[in-house]
Amino acid sequence: MPLPFLTADRAFDASAEDVALPFDDHDSWRRPYRPGPWRVAAAAALLLLASFILFAGMIIAFAGGLPGAGACLALALALIICALRMLRIGAWVSRHGVRRVGFFRTTTVPWSRATAVRTVQQPVKWLGFPRTVQGQALIVVRRGGDAVPPLLTDSNADFLTRGEAFDRAADTIEAWGDEYRQQ
Fold first, then answer.
1. What would the pLDDT profile of 58-95 be if each residue is shown by its tens digit?
2. What does residue 24 show for φ and ψ, rounded to 5 degrees?
3. Cα angle: 8, vertex 163, 47; to 5 degrees
4. How far, in Å, are 78, 80, 81, 83, 97 from residue 69 at the CA level?
5. Whole-model pTM?
6. What phi, psi does 88 have (nearest 5°)?
7. d(Cα 1, Cα 128) in Å, to the nearest integer?
8. Residue 177, exposed/middle/buried by CB under 10 A (0-12, 13-18, 19+)?
9. Phi and psi based region of residue 161 (left: phi greater than 0; alpha: psi -120 to 50; beta: remaining)
10. I want to staple 92 with a disulfide (CB 3.0 to 4.6 A). Which of 29, 102, 119, 162 is the partner?
11. 3-state SS of the chain: helix, strand, coil percent to 5?
């Protein structure tokens, strides 16, 4: 039973109805793909662990150990923040530029400083680990030749085993880049 109202795929099936969707606002930052199953599974595991820690903190608090309950609360909040930050990782695009959001760092390249957005074959990290595999990466070429880490790779947590989704997201970002650089 498909539930298209719950997914981002409805934008690709919108040929039947040409209604402007809320995320079609070109001035706001938007991600042209859904978070992948590996990223969602890791965030869900962190949230599950946080719920167990909160439950343990509640038991410790009822037993009278408030410092231990406070430590459990702090650890659970840190895990929740990590899970939410993990879900924000990825490439975001707006009329102003392209943004690569990482866990600790966010890099924004204005369209005026970008000369091209293209897909290349190169060694890429597998799920963010130091191990590299041969794969595809979507890169931004800046004016002046500054090196920018890849926006997307076909071996990251969003696109591992989802080659078609990577191709669709890369094509969308490349098309938006061409459109916004001409403005």
1. 999 999 889 999 999 999 999 999 999 999 998 999 88
2. -85, 10
3. 55
4. 14, 16, 18, 21, 44
5. 0.76
6. -85, -15
7. 34
8. buried
9. left
10. 29
11. 45, 20, 35
